[in-house]
């Protein structure tokens, strides 16, 4: 018995002394180019850890801290590779086939998580030709936690028909376009959880800052497929990778926050600011507006979309509109994701990488002018004018001071739209595509759908906050 205990102690001591890395630091990974990237892990206290990267063969050393952690920073070169990193302490860890390029985090709920294996049709069509050694995936395990964690499971893989089949389809199409246009390696981190609420993705302490967010956190609907406790996904999945340098974030979420739509703008602002603070980087944040779906609600979906539009006021953000990218209004998961990923990539290419992209912003309502029983609407981001895709404009409603909206007629004049209804003699407000599952036909001439909107700020009759 004593011999067994001694052997167990010796084995435990040896394992404790070995240099250990978090899952996200591994062979086949992509590191952010021209950045002071962090490498970190665990080792025996006072143990000397040396790190040598093959791109410059410089050796950097650090001593294990009293809590058995260590951390160093290396300056990465311009894009390229493959490289290797050797980490030595009481043992040696060799990380091989490392590329230097651009790293993006792909997060949100099921429409970000959905894969070719999960039914995305245009992703399935990509499988035979998916192999791309300059596109790499880190598929993160799902983990909720009551306190911030220092590691989360996952694996890096090279893009091929096997790895791509179970990776975020939106992320894949986004990364594929960036890689083709920029000509540099792209690393993608899939940090998504179907059915997740935004409240769970940001630190719990922030939820109580505003009445709206506090009410949202307290009234999250309990489901069997995702946690409903504020902060637990930040603790379990975000916190472990914040030392890992990234270029930016793409985000697709909101379906699960219809339970209290008035909080969505503040939640988004807190999420963006808290993640930027955790990474200590003012990275870009591009996101997808909710797609049309027959939820059967009142104005919850429309208000989430409205707050998503408001969030574009946050610096270095951008929003993709998807009112035209739904093949079945009774399916909450649109089966085609290529155009979603492409539109996200266009935002990044234009605003982050400063490439010339002719059209990447959807037209947005700017102002109105009332002329008798007609209302004239003007729009931004429609320099070449607007079109009715099917020849007839749909989804316009108009109301007078009685706040009763009626179906309206509309016609286009360059980048303005005239709206009226014979039954409304003195109109004061217009709504466009302001419902769960709109099918609007108003587009820019370049083919981007106009952002749903309303010109009024009237009470929508939704549940009141505490």
TrEMBL record:
Residues 102-347 form the Sialate O-acetylesterase domain. InterPro entries: SASA, SGNH_hydro_sf, SIAE. This is Sialate O-acetylesterase. GO terms for biological process: carbohydrate metabolic process. GO terms for molecular function: sialate O-acetylesterase activity. The keyword Signal applies. The lineage of its organism: Bacteria, Pseudomonadati, Bacteroidota, Cytophagia, Cytophagales. Keywords: Hydrolase, Signal. Residues 1-17 form the signal peptide.
């Amino acid at each position: 018995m004593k011999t067994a205990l001694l052997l167990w102690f010796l084995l435990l001591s040896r394992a404790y002394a070995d240099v250990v890395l978090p899952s996200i630091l591994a062979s086949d990974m992509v590191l952010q180019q021209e950045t002071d990237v962090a490498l970190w892990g665990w080792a025996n206290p006072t143990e000397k850890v040396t790190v040598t990267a093959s791109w410059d063969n410089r050796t950097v050393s650090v001593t294990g801290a009293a809590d058995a952690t260590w951390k160093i920073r290396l300056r990465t070169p311009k894009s390229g590779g493959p490289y290797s990193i050797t980490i030595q302490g009481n043992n040696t860890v060799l990380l091989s086939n490392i590329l230097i390029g651009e790293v993006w985090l792909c997060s949100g709920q099921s429409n970000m998580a959905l894969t070719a294996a999960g039914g995305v049709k245009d992703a399935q069509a990509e499988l035979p030709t998916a192999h791309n050694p300059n596109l790499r995936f880190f598929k993160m395990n799902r983990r909720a936690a009551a306190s911030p964690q220092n590691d989360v499971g996952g694996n890096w893989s090279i893009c091929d028909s096997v790895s791509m089949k179970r990776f975020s389809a939106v992320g894949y199409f986004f990364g594929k376009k960036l890689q083709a246009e920029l000509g540099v390696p792209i690393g993608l981190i899939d940090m998504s959880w179907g059915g997740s609420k935004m409240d769970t993705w940001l630190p719990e302490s922030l939820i109580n800052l505003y009445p709206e967010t506090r009410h949202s956190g307290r009234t999250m609907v309990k489901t069997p497929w995702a946690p409903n406790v504020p902060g637990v996904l930040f603790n379990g999945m975000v916190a472990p990778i914040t030392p890992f340098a990234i270029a930016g974030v793409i985000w697709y979420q909101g379906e699960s926050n219809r339970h209290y739509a008035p909080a969505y703008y503040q939640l988004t602002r807190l999420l963006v600011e808290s993640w930027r603070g955790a990474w200590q980087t003012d990275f870009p944040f591009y996101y997808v507006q909710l797609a049309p779906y027959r939820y059967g609600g009142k104005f919850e979906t429309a208000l989430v979309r409205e707050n998503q539009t408001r969030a574009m006021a946050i610096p270095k953000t951008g929003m993709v509109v998807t009112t035209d990218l739904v093949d079945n209004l009774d399916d909450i998961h649109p089966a085609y994701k290529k155009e979603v990923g492409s539109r996200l990539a266009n935002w990044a290419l234009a605003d982050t990488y400063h490439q010339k992209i002719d059209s990447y912003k959807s037209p947005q309502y700017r102002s109105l002018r009332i002329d008798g029983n007609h209302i004239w609407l003007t729009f931004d981001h429609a320099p070449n004018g607007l079109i009715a895709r099917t020849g007839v404009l749909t989804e316009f409603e108009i109301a007078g001071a009685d706040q009763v909206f009626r179906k309206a007629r509309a016609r286009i004049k360059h980048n303005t739209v005239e709206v009226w209804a014979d039954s409304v003699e003195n109109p004061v407000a217009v709504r466009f595509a302001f419902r769960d599952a709109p099918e609007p036909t108003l587009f820019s001439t370049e083919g981007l759908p106009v952002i749903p909107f309303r010109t009024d700020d009237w009470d929508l009759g939704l549940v009141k906050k505490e």
